[in-house]
Every structure is written in structure tokens, then in C-alpha cells.
Specification:
Length: about 230
Amino acid sequence: MVTASWTSATAADRKAMLRDILEEVAMTRYEIGKDALDERVMAAMAKVPRERFVGTYDRYRAFVNGPLPIGYGQTISQPYIVALMSDLLEPRPDSIVLEVGTGSGYQAAVLAELVQQVYSMEIIDALASAAGERLQELGYDNVTVRHGDGYRGWPEHAPFDGIIVTAAAPHVPPPLVEQLKPGGRLVIPIGEPADIQQLMLVEKRGDGSVSSRSMLMVAFVPLTRSQP
Ligand code: SAH
């Protein structure tokens, strides 16, 4: 019957989504340097209701392994990229992380399953409030969303164990490196907006020195800037 419940449909869809992620990890294993992602990350991907973060019209496509529009010209990343970026952060249950680019709040929800506290910044006011409400409705009370330019980070809550930027920047924002704890990790797509970018992993060592390496070619919407 056409009225098959959402729950049974999404359980199967979510399983297919996890299978797609595993396949894509296998296909990119030489680039990302691993055969499998952290089990906790995969469990979080299985748990977060992705269909609740996309518009009603797109719900039937929520689990397709590709990006989806979330309004205001922005997109929610494909599940594989969300999983990979979460894995690269090496999240621990006691981690405090910053996300730049809340968008729908989906990536924040995945992180909220993995860490103690997520601070997430979004430059488009309407998206920030919608995501904040959605996350609250879903019971994610360890996510705090704020409207603002994430290029400058969120100094009041720094330093962070991890920072994830889900919009492409021409360079690594110095304030974000500054707000990283020694031993912390920053995951960010770097490159020109109209082009393909490199997903970079930036690590701050115990002595404060910084190293970075490129993990994968990706395509993100641009990091925009508010007027200073
Ligand atoms: N992580 C999101 C998808 C992000 S799309 C999700 O899971 O749905 C990138 C988002 O970054 C967009 O919503 C865009 O408005 C936002 N953004 C762009 N520049 C920004 C900036 N300087 N500070 C904060 N958010 C920014």
C-alpha cells in the first residue's frame, strides 16, 4: 500500500545509506588511508534521522548518497562526507567541538551523538534558528547553535578538541587554528568555491606546532564572510 509507514521505509533506507558509505569508503581507501570508519561514527550515522533535516519534498531522497538542497542556496552534505569528516575529527565522548556551517543541523546532530558538546555557527540567520529548533525538537540538548560568522570561531567556548568547517574556504582561518587545543584536529575543505576543493586535516601537536594534509577532493558551498 502507498501508505507504508515512514518508519519501515526509513529503516531500510538507512541501511542502504550505511551500505553506500561502506562502499564509498572502500573506493577511496587509498586517499583516506583506511578501510573502515570508526564504529561509533557509523552507529551515529545509523541513528540520526536524516529525513528530519531535509524539506518534506526531499524526504524520499534523504538517504541517497548525495548532497541535498536545504534552502538559501545551501546544501546538506552527502552521508559519506558527513561520516568521513566526523571520523577525521577522532571524536571522543568528552570532546568539545565547534562546527562552522550549521546548515540543516544534520552534521551537528551526528557529532552530538559522538561528543560531549557541540557549538555550531551559521551565517544565515533563518537557517541558524530553524536548525536550532529542529535539534531541540529531536532532543539534542548538547548542541548550541549561534548565528554569526564562523571564520572568527567562537572564542568564548575555545579551546576546542575538534573543529569542523562544512563550507569551502580559500585558506585555513587563523582564528580557528588558534582556537584548537594542542592535540586537536580541524577538518576543512580548502579551495576556490566554484572549483573542487581539498578536504584538509589540520592537526595541532602537543607543542603547538601545526601540520596539515589533504585527504580527498570534495565540493562544498563557499564560506562567506560578514562585514567586520
Ligand atoms: N553542515 C550542514 C551543511 C552545511 S552547508 C548540514 O549538515 O546541513 C554550509 C553552510 O555553511 C551553509 O548553511 C552556509 O550558510 C554556512 N556558512 C557559510 N559561510 C559561513 C560562515 N562564515 N560562518 C558560518 N556559517 C557559514
